[in-house]
Amino acid sequence: MFDAFLAVMVRDLVLAMRRKTDVFSTLFFFVIVVSLFPLGIGPEMNTLRLIAPGVVWVAALLASMLALERLFAADYDDGTLEQMLLAPQPLFILVLGKVAAHWLATGLPLVLMAPLLGLQYDLSADALRILLYSLLLGTPALSLIGAIGAALTIGLRGGGVLVSLLVLPLCIPILIFGAGAVEANVSGLGEQGHIFMLGALLVLSLLLAPLATAAALRVSAE
Amino acid sequence: MLEVVKLECVRGDRRLISGLSFSLRQGELMHLHGHNGSGKTTLMRTICGLIQQSGGEILWNGESSRKLGEEFTRELTYIGHKNGIKDDLNGIENLQLSCRLAGMPIVRKTAWEVLERMGLRGHEDLPVRVLSQGQKRRVTLARLLLSKAPLWILDEPFTALDMAAVEFLQSIISLHVEQGGMVILTTHQEVRLTRGQVRQLRLGWKEEGDV
Amino acid sequence: MSSRLINWFKFSSPPAFYDLAGRMVPWFTVIAVVLIGVGLYMSFFVAPTDYKQGEGYRIIFVHVPAAWMSMFIYVIMALWSGIGLVFNTRLSAMMAQALAPTGAMFTFLALWTGAFWGKPMWGAWWVWDARLTSELILLFLYIGFIALQGAIDDKRRADRAGAILALVGVVNIPIIYYSVKWWNTLHQGASVSISKGSSMGEVMLITMLIMALGFWAYSIAVALMRVRSIILERDRDTTWVSQLPEMQVR
User: Which residues of B touch C153 (CB under 8 A)?
Assistant: First the structure.
């Protein structure tokens, strides 16, 4: 079972490495969106410091939506998805493998890039650290929840926009606690509560989202 | 033994298959016939479990294939219209991966040998993207050489293959049936078997069943 | 399905339910008109003027029941979806599909009345209050459900995909609600809390309940009407539909 998880994860990572543009376009989308805000709002440092957690988190949310569309659609197109559905392995394990690879290829780069972008907004070292932690806990949950939407919209017209429409509302709690953690740290309230909640949400989505995704895949692949 | 009991399949608003019953024993091959859109692919995908039937049952050794779940899919090798291989991986990687997913990992050397037997010598480590349609099909079908599953469901396995490859594939299928395997396939080619029984099933007529 | 359960599932067949729903619709329509009429009369003429909020508070008689309905309907939709997935009954999915627009309508009504209430009370059309924000997210969930069903051509896939989405949504609703509440208290934003603004008198409570019951009856009537047309549309090629009296007039 674990071997199947590894097999799928490694396969998707290898594929991501051979198609680097997908990975990089997500990352640069994130960078560009975050860099646009000061241009729209003005370079006033106090304001920027105030909105930084929200901006970085919303940008991360949007960027992670961007890569979702192809998560299952590519496998559906070339028929590897039906082979996975027919593999004598629990489907949610294979889903977990795919989501893990998806996060490593598109989520983790965002997390690592975020502190650098936080510097543009003059966040303190401590706040940057919390930003990193909150994204580290939050972005895997975004990938897990997003996978449900990706599985539901396989092969549909305008699938990309539809995924965002379905998934973004479901991601709101993660946004609230993620950005909230950094804000709480900046305002000196202490970020612990938020971080715990993020962890709880991650555990919950780890338990439930792969099952929902597996069910959705069976429906969509008919 | 595979038994299909009063199967009913609906696609879209159309009832493609209704009241279809047949059984397939060890050492038997079933050749599905029918005009385009008569439900051959639907029937095969339903038997695999990719499509949920709207009525009737599919039994594997007397038990519902749905309830058996992975116990059933372990006994099954399905090759559909889509090749089920990744364009960005080479033949070896593709083959190794599908064997690993089937729960029977193979070493690189085995994969190499099998692809060579499929007539892909010299193309084993090229990304599948650069291969021709027929060569891609061969990579897909290489799975059959390694499959230990008793039930093969093959949807148009011969498309895009050249004469030699068709010949070779027929011999593999014959061997499988001879050794007590079961095959359900669709093709426009005539299927010749050295031993074992070939049965024909015609879909799309009012009264369906064995011909 | 075993024969023991056959009575239970009798009305789960579309022809039987089509007939039953047809007979139920007029009753619920009458109940809805009467209750909403009485409720509106009471809310405008019977309920006393609020000493703190003046006449403007009367909008809560629409706002609060609408907000209740918006949440109830989502839960019921998820319930039907769950039944549809487990028992593989077509009718349950049709019910879920029929309920969605009504739920979205009540959500929108709750938001709209909330804004109308907020303008005189807070001087702003929109305040980021926990209740209104959750209601807004609920509207997004409804829209997602409707959009997903609309995007899928294959009816069976649309039913089952919608069902999965509704179930995922219903698991998420409490999480969303509490996270928004947490967010709201942390930012010490405006708290509208229409319903508990002042101690509620007995008349006000009764009026609100009558309105809520009226909305229930309306939702049932509209959902049944909608489910009837969904049944007709999906079964249009079957013989039972072509034999219906309403199909004979050409």
Answer: 12
Contacts of C154 in chain B (CB under 8 A): 11-12
Q: State the smallest CA–CA distance between residue A19 and chain B in angstroms.
A: 8
Domains of chain C, residue spans: 26-41+59-233
Best of B13, B46, B64 to disrupt the C interface (most C CBs within 10 Å) is B13
**Phi/psi zone of residue A158: left (φ > 0), alpha (ψ -120 to 50 degrees), beta?**
left
Contact assignment for A79 to B73 by CB distance below 8 Å: no
Contact C151 A162 (CB under 8 A): yes
CA C214, CA C94: separation in Å to the nearest integer? 23
- CB neighbours of C30 closer than 8 A, spacing ≥ 6? none
Give the contacts of B86 (CB within 8 A, at least 6 positions apart).
A11, A15, A78, A80, B93, B94, B97, B128
Helix (H, G, I), strand (E, B), or coil: what is residue B123?
coil
Structure pTM?
Answer: 0.89
Of C50, C94, C64, C57, the residue nearest C214 (C-alpha):
C64
Which chain A residues touch C188 with a CB distance below 8 Å? none
C237 closest CB neighbour out of B11, B13, B52:
B13
Give C69-106 pLDDT, tens digit per residue. 999 999 999 999 999 988 888 889 999 999 999 999 99
pLDDT in tens, A131-184: 999 999 999 999 999 999 999 999 888 778 899 999 999 999 999 999 999 988
Q: Give the pLDDT of residue C224.
A: 93
Cα distance from B71 to chain A (closest Cα, Å)?
7
Structural tokens at position C162 = 């919608």
